[in-house]
Amino acid sequence: MNILAFAASNSSQSINKKFVTSVSKYYKEPEDVIEILDLNDYEMPLFSIDRELSEGIPQAAKDFATKIDCADFLLISLAEHNGSYCAAYKNIIDWVSRIPGRKLFNSKPVFLLATSPGAMGAATVLNTAVNRITWDGANVLDSFSLPSFKDNFEEGKGVINMNMRAELEAKVRKTKRSLKELFEQA
C-alpha cells in the first residue's frame, strides 16, 4: 500500500508534521511505502481566478495532485489557524481543485488528524474538514484530535497519554479494517 502523509501546515517546526509522522508508523507493513510530504515543497502563488486565467495552474499543484493520485491511503494532520485551515494548505487545495476533470481527493480513503498546543486540539478545523472533505472527493474513514500536544506527545514515543493513545490505536485498527474491506472489494 502507498501511504501519503502530510501536515496541513507550512511551519518548519510543525507539531502536526511530528504527529502525522508518528501516526504513519502504525500503518507500516513490510510491503507498504510511506511518504511524508512537506507543504513547503508545494509553495505557489496565492490562488486567484485572474492568475489562473493569465498563467494557468501551477506545476506544483499538478505535482501535489499526482502525489494524491499515486497514494492508496492519505493521513492528513490539520493545523488550525484562527479556527480554520492553514493558508498554505488552503491555497494548495484551491489550486488542485481547479485541475479539470478531477475531484480534489479522487475518492481516496483518508484518516484526518489534528493537534494543537491548546486544550481543543484543533477540533474546530478538524470538524470543518470532516464535514467538507467528502465534498472534495475524500472517503473519510475516521478522525482524531490530540489536545495539548506538549503534554500528550513525546518525540520517539508518540502519544504518551494512555487514554488518548488507546483511543488513537482503536481508530488505527478501525481504519486498517476499513482499508482491508475497501481493497478486497476492488
Automatic annotation (TrEMBL):
Cited InterPro entries: Flavoprotein-like_sf (IPR029039), FMN_Rdtase-like_dom (IPR005025), NAD(P)H-dep_reductase (IPR050712)
Domain NADPH-dependent FMN reductase-like: 1-144
Record Pfam families: FMN_red
GO molecular function terms attached to this record: FMN binding; oxidoreductase activity
Gene Ontology, cellular component aspect: cytosol
PANTHER family named among the record's database cross-references: CHROMATE REDUCTASE (PTHR30543), NAD(P)H-DEPENDENT FMN REDUCTASE LOT6 (PTHR30543:SF21)
Protein name according to UniProt: NAD(P)H-dependent oxidoreductase
